[in-house]
Design a protein that fits this description.
Layout (H helix, E strand, L loop, with lengths): L7 H9 L14 E5 L2 E8 L4 E6 L15 H8 L38 H20 L10 E3 L9 H5 L5 E4 L4 E4 L9 H5 L5 E3 L4 H13 L8
Antiparallel strand pairs: 1-2, 2-3, 4-7, 5-6
């Protein structure tokens, strides 16, 4: 049983009043039968490693929440990710809540995860504040360095398009070349790592510059001598 924040006290209070929480293996879910007019819950306790039967006066089931299947189409449209359960995945739940890596997009409420009404309202307020800051500026700040394409080296394999987590790359069939959207690119370098011809490059971090920095660093240690 996992709880967070102030909700931990509800769990502690329930335990103190005699409520017993039992875990189970998802592969062996509890079963329910009606015996002598009463529900009987059967499950295997992983701690005791034994089959347990509980005859209850009342059986209350919580309604499960599943992600909307249409969210996949919305995610593809805006170029934002979903998690393994089909909910929109935040950039970071702790450091960048309600935000995506892609600027200007936010996820709140049940689109993000199962949550209480209070949590959904708090997320909505946070998203409104972030969107207000984003829209109130006269200019949209871009990444200091963005990726580029050396067209002469590019073989149009389109690996960089699939590798870009921000959807900043696309193929222009009319001009027959890879196009980079500078407003979307966050200079993560995934395209440069994926490209086999060194056609994709993050400005300011090309091979010459990196090797020059490595050489300069090695020179600081002096020229090695041999005995």
């Amino acid at each position: 049983m996992m709880s967070y924040g102030s909700y931990e006290r509800y769990y502690t209070e329930a335990r103190s009043k005699g409520v017993i929480f039992a875990t189970y293996d998802p592969e062996k879910k509890p079963s329910v039968e009606v015996k002598h007019g009463k529900p009987v819950v059967s499950f295997r306790d992983p701690v005791l490693d034994a089959e347990i039967e509980v005859a209850a006066d009342w059986l209350s089931l919580a309604t499960g929440i599943q992600a909307d299947p249409d969210q996949q189409q919305l995610a593809d449209t805006f170029g934002v990710p979903l998690n393994q359960d089909g909910f929109f995945a935040e950039a970071d739940p702790k450091w960048r809540p309600v935000e995506f890596h892609k600027s200007g997009c936010y996820a709140v409420g049940l689109a993000n995860a199962p949550m209480t009404l209070r949590e959904a309202i708090m997320q909505a307020e946070a998203a409104v504040q972030k969107a207000s800051v984003f829209l109130s500026g006269r200019e949209i700040p871009l990444a200091r360095e963005v990726s580029t394409v050396h067209d002469a080296h590019c073989i149009r394999c389109k690996r960089c398009i699939a590798a870009c987590p921000y959807g900043a790359r696309s193929f222009d069939a009319e001009s027959d070349r890879i196009i980079v959207d500078s407003a979307t690119c966050q200079a993560c370098g995934m395209c440069a790592v994926t490209c086999r011809n060194s056609a994709a490059e993050v400005r300011g971090w090309n091979d010459k510059q990196m090797l020059a920095m490595i050489d300069a660093q090695l020179m600081n240690y002096g020229t090695p001598t041999t005995a």
